TrEMBL record:
The keyword Transport does not apply. It comes from Alicyclobacillus fastidiosus. Its EC number is 3.1.2.-. CDD domains: 4HBT. One of its GO terms (molecular function) is hydrolase activity. It is an enzyme of class 3 (hydrolase). This is Thioesterase family protein. Belongs to the 4-hydroxybenzoyl-CoA thioesterase family. Signal peptide: none annotated.
Length: 142
């Protein structure tokens, strides 16, 4: 399953060279990740209401070609790894012609709001666990 989110490059997202400032791609990763979660029928706000957060452990980005103000981008997001505690998302940001501009990953764990200690999604968020297991299984059969 790949979730797709369109982004129109805004002037405020560009740097002095007229291209998207590199850190803005991380925001676009988050927009894509949130859309993927919603496409799975889940919401981060519900996770937080249940007493959990999902912080970033690490993020990687490879910049292939620039995007500029006035162009449109497509953020393609998928789950590439899930082990019951940690989830790794994969991202591809392509331009309106389909050329790859940025590729990356981010790793996350679910933690208790009270202790900030990692928790097993299977135990505390079974609907999230089931959705991620289903996505990972379907990916392995492609």
């Amino acid at each position: 399953m790949v979730s797709e989110t369109e982004i129109e490059v805004r002037y405020a997202e560009t740097d002095q060279m007229g291209v998207v400032y590199h850190a803005n791609y991380l925001i676009w990763f988050e927009i894509g990740r949130t859309k993927l979660v919603e496409d799975l029928g889940l919401r981060y706000v519900d996770m937080e209401d249940d007493g959990y957060f999902c912080p970033v452990l690490d993020v990687h980005a490879q910049y292939k070609r620039p995007l500029k103000y006035g162009e449109n981008a497509l953020v393609k997001t998928r789950v590439i790894e899930y082990n019951g505690v940690k989830v790794v998302y994969g991202y591809e940001i392509v331009d309106e012609h389909g050329a790859l501009c940025v590729a990356g990953t981010s790793s996350h764990v679910v933690v208790s709001k009270e202790t900030f200690q990692p928790v097993a999604m299977r135990k505390v968020l079974p609907n999230w666990h089931t959705a991620y297991e289903r996505v990972v299984r379907s990916t392995m059969h492609e």
